[in-house]
Amino acid sequence: MPQCPLPPTDKAGLRGEALARRNALTPEARAAAAEIAAGHAMEWLGEVCGEVVSVFAPIGSEIATAPLVERLRAGGAQVALPVVLEPGKPLMFRLWEPGVALEPSRGPGRFAIPAPPEGAPAVTPDVLVVPLAGFDARGHRLGYGAGFYDRTLALLRRVKRIEAVGYAFAVQELPAVPDEPHDERLDAIATDGGIIRPAEE
């Protein structure tokens, strides 16, 4: 009798599985899903007037954040983007004013990441919209292995109340993501399939 392969349980295998599903989406499906996910995210966030919300500049096949940025600004939020200072350190955040062109900045790997220019004010966000390679319904996320968001969330949560919202396509959901003591859980996950509100563990 042929043996069926077991689903991956290691982070690298799970990451590959979730990213393969993300990469398989057509451009039309991506665009439609990004609009829907932005609406779900705003439903969960509620009143954002005066809040500083950090989003991310999508790289590769990541979900587009432009529809969410448009809604955030219309709601009176200040939008920021993360900046990598150096490996092993938390992220910093710069304000992204409307109409300001983004510039390439050092990324966690070999990719440059669009960020506000160096002269943009540094800010401390109230909400982090977090990119995901994969996620589960418990609020555990798979990133890309560099640990920037875990370190950043741990630091921010020690000094203030902050909400962390995962943002991804629904197809990136996994049955379970292995978690370690240093992993920071998300408060919610917004996708084109709706909002996932993790239960307390």
Automatic annotation (TrEMBL):
It comes from the Bacteria. PANTHER family: 5-FORMYLTETRAHYDROFOLATE CYCLO-LIGASE (PTHR23407:SF1), ATPASE INHIBITOR/5-FORMYLTETRAHYDROFOLATE CYCLO-LIGASE (PTHR23407). Belongs to the 5-formyltetrahydrofolate cyclo-ligase family. The keyword Nucleotide-binding applies. Its EC number is 6.3.3.2. The keyword ATP-binding applies. It is an enzyme of class 6 (ligase). The lineage of its organism: Bacteria, Pseudomonadati, Pseudomonadota, Alphaproteobacteria, Hyphomicrobiales. It catalyses: (6S)-5-formyl-5,6,7,8-tetrahydrofolate + ATP = (6R)-5,10-methenyltetrahydrofolate + ADP + phosphate. Its cofactor is Mg(2+). This is 5-formyltetrahydrofolate cyclo-ligase.
